[in-house]
Amino acid sequence: MTRPRTRIQQKNSETILEAALEVFSTYGFRGATLDQIADVAGLSKPNLLYYFPSKEAMHQALLTRLLDTWLDPLRELDEAGDPVTEILAYVRRKIELSRDYPRESRLFANEILQGAPRMQAAIEGDLKRLVDEKSVILSRWMDQGRIARLPPQHLIFSIWALTQHYADFDSQVRAVLGPGHDPFAEAGDYLDTLFRKLLAP
């Protein structure tokens, strides 16, 4: 039987994962090193390895936690609600996720760009099941003439692409917009208009 972690152990574990998130989101999995993570965490390398046996274990822990965070906004899409309202609320939740969790977004993007070697099972499992389930709801709304007929999975892909862009390409977005702009507020208003027109039956 595994003993529950003490408060100090829990705190150290969270400190390590926070440092690992910073390093992985900056350098990617391949570019990150245990020494870098230890340095950001302010802990020794042996101390790191006491909590997580490898760089892979830290990365996997972050990805497992991240997938739940990433899927939660889509889980909230409610068939009983008004279709346009539900979809626009999903877009808003995804923009807020990009604003509030930019490092997590970059971590996820890096994993996908590498071919998802550590997330393939989760993508083919939980993620695909949820997208399939919500695609059925979208198709039903289309059949009822409540929103325009579009390929439902591609509608979801476009929402991902247009919202996560603001986290994954943050420095580019801010450089192009220049000072005095709130990219996430502007993006929210723009995407609301874009999808409202796209979804009109």
From TrEMBL:
Keywords, comma-separated and alphabetical: DNA-binding
Residue ranges annotated for the HTH tetR-type domain, each copy included: 10-70
Family matches, as InterPro entries: Homeodomain-like_sf (IPR009057), HTH-type_TetR-like_transc_reg (IPR050109), HTH_TetR (IPR001647), Tet_transcr_reg_TetR-rel_C_sf (IPR036271), Tscrpt_reg_YcdC_C (IPR013573)
Residues in the DNA-binding region annotation: 33-52
Name of the protein in its database record: TetR family transcriptional regulator
Native organism: Paragemmobacter ruber
